[in-house]
Amino acid sequence: MKLYGAPHTRSVQAVWMLEECGARYERVLVDIRGGAQHTPEYHAINPMEKVPALVDGEARIAETGAICAYLADRFPEAELAPRIHDPERGRYLQWLFFSGSCVEPSFMEKVLGIDVNPSQAGWGNYAKVLDVLEEGVGEGPWLLGDRFTAADVVIGSGLYFGMRLFDLIAPRPAFDAYVDRCIARPAFVRAQELAEDWT
């Protein structure tokens, strides 16, 4: 299994997930500052020419939410996803894909200072996304109650970056407590160290 990535990117999210799974994998540096993502070889792995991307035998997976979903199902012994017939699977999938479809677009709304019509934007708007996130993490300790899942890797990463690295989210007690629980996980700590060193 090979994870293609680069420092200071969303690759850390995939590393965190791999560490939570206890997977054996190789990290492969993609020199995105030098344009290595635009080579035909990398394009064949991820046509969007972004990192991260995961190769597992014949499988090629891009998009961090998809990578986390794949790994959770690939390593069922890690118990990071409800099984197919578990009623919680629906809510799990909703949170798993909430980051790419709602959180990140709302961050761009905030950064660019644009006004969107909540009834027309798929994510509603920035304020609504934050309120939904606060409701989701508020009861805790995790999105599915006592059960930590791949959805927490995805949402926890988004909140960590939005609050602690890019100052896109004003502090809220529920967010602070949730992010503190996430960053205290040993796999998160390992991922932070590993994601900085792709040599």
Walk me through the structure.
The protein is an alpha+beta fold and 199 residues long. Helices cover 52% and strands 8% of the residues. It is built from eight helices and four strands. It has a four-stranded mixed sheet, covered by helices on one side. Helix 1 packs parallel to helix 3, helix 3 runs antiparallel to helix 4 and helix 3 runs antiparallel to helix 6.
In brief:
The chain is of the alpha+beta class and 199 residues long.
Q: What would you call the structural class?
A: alpha+beta
Strand composition percent? 5-15%
- Tertiary shape: globular
Order of helical and strand elements: EHEHEEHHHHHH
Measured as a percent range, the helix fraction is 40-55%
Strand sequence of the main sheet, in spatial order? 2-1-3-4
| Distance between the ends | 17 Å
Reported for the largest beta sheet, the result is:
4 strands, mixed
User: In total, how many beta strands?
Assistant: 4
Radius of gyration: 17 Å
Tally of alpha and pi helices: 8
Chain-averaged pLDDT: 94
User: pLDDT under 50 segments (min length 5)?
Assistant: none
Give the arrangement of secondary structure elements:
Blueprint: E1 2-5, H1 11-21, E2 26-29, H2 40-45, E3 53-56, E4 59-62, H3 64-74, H4 88-112, H5 126-138, H6 150-165, H7 173-183, H8 186-196
Parallel strand pairs: 1-2
Antiparallel strand pairs: 1-3, 3-4
Helix pairs in contact: 1-3, 1-8, 3-4, 3-6, 4-5, 4-6, 6-7
